[in-house]
Amino acid sequence: MSELKLQQCRVDGRYDVLDCLGRGSYSEVYVARDVAAADGAPAMIVLKALNTYLQGAPDPELEQTLIDNFRNEAVALDRVRHPNVINRLGHGTAIDLTGRVFHYLVLEYLPGGDLNALCRRRPLKLEGALFYLEQVCSGMEHAHSRGVIHRDIKPQNLLLTADQHTVKIADFGVAKLGATDGAITRVGTDVYAAPEHHPLMQTGQLDTASLTMGALHLTPAADIYSLAKTAYALLVGEPPRRFSQRPITELPAKFMAEPWGWEVARVLERATQSRPEKRYQAVGDFWADLREASLPHTRLLGQSNGPVFAPEAEGLNEEDADGTGGTPPPPPAPVFTEKTGPAPAVADRSKDSQHFRIVVPISTASATREAAPPARRQPAEPPARRREEASAHASLRPEPASTHPRRRGLSDRAKKWLVALFLIAAFAGMLLATYFYFRREPRASQTPTAPGAQAGRESPVGREFVATNDVNLRGQPNGQLVGKVPNGSVVKVQAVNGGWYQIQILQYKRPKERASDADQGWADKDFFTERQ
Predict the structure, then answer these.
(1) Global pTM value
(2) Angstrom distance (rounded) from CA 192 to CA 227
(3) Number of other residues whose CB lies within 10 A of the CB of residue 471
(4) Higher pLDDT among residues 412 and 344, named by residue
């Protein structure tokens, strides 16, 4: 492994490199400060450098392929400009301290981390997962409309802004420009990648229909497959490893018990079919079904004194419920598009009769008046009799309440006193709650907690963890490299220092790259999950 020497350096006389954020197979990512940033432009940026020597000296053909892919990422980012896609701010070619020439891209800095790390720290609720998925679907639909297929959608490539309210799609390094151009090559992460990304790995029962088909071409359905696997990870809080290279058929038991469990599983199953033509063909269709499946089932609203407005109610048929004779139809569902113009027509409800539209309740008084038969008209009474009854009622009518100004003033004063007493009581309650909070919590707040765990849980020291990615092993935190922990290897935590674990490698997932690599050192704790 031969890393670029860029720490504490200025690249191209403009970008001051501050720290290394990570390394991939053939690229290194640094956070830097743009000393020549124009007014209004971000000062903090990300510098993504291509390093073709990270895995050893490449052959000329591989090196040219890596350079083409790096240029392809820049072209894809320029073609896909969207609020939910990371921005490319520049590019260039420079030389590091050892004299090695490298190419780099200048990208938008997103300090909020990625969705994978966010889910590990705290599982997302349904509303939170849908909040982020809507943004990802919006960005992907725009990319597809521009002829760009990402091919590597996964939580690690979905980055967050500092406030963690906006998610942006990153890493277009293996994106394909033009959905039907060229043969499919093997890319992506096995857990999230569609089967067509791994044409040599597909196994199973012989499908004779495929013998008469031509060569596969990439379509947006490949990204929809990865989107569905990502949706599973966000909803469940763990990667869909047990559904690797096969459709998602169910969620864990506690999620299937939710009112939305079966409907969401049905949408994910369709989106992760092995054959692309059986999946959703547009991101907007996938999101519309996923959003509708997550909505709570509408329960019929009945009233004792009025009619019930529902398709099953007596005297009201399906046609009335659609707006021809009953309640008006709902407004059109939102779609992902940047075009302006008339809204699309409302979808036919008969195609999906399992979900009912919201029933608007009618007030009891109005329903009673509409349901009650008209009163029978009484015969007119003689004028003299009406005058006698009016005088008798007048004698029994109570005296009107006094409107003396003094009584009205006392009422206003009482209201003001009540409001003042309420505010005083609320303030006193807040002070009391604050007192008990600070009296009970200080010692607990000073106790360090294990990564990804809540306060009060036992320390990770002495426990076994599994690497979730290839992790660099260092002699000290942020020190020199002494080895590598392969993805899936089993380690034991010996000490904790901030965001670093001192680990002992117990079991390698694959053989060492170099015999001299150490078996013990410090590694970033965000790349480990506790062994089950």
Answers:
(1) 0.54
(2) 8
(3) 23
(4) 412
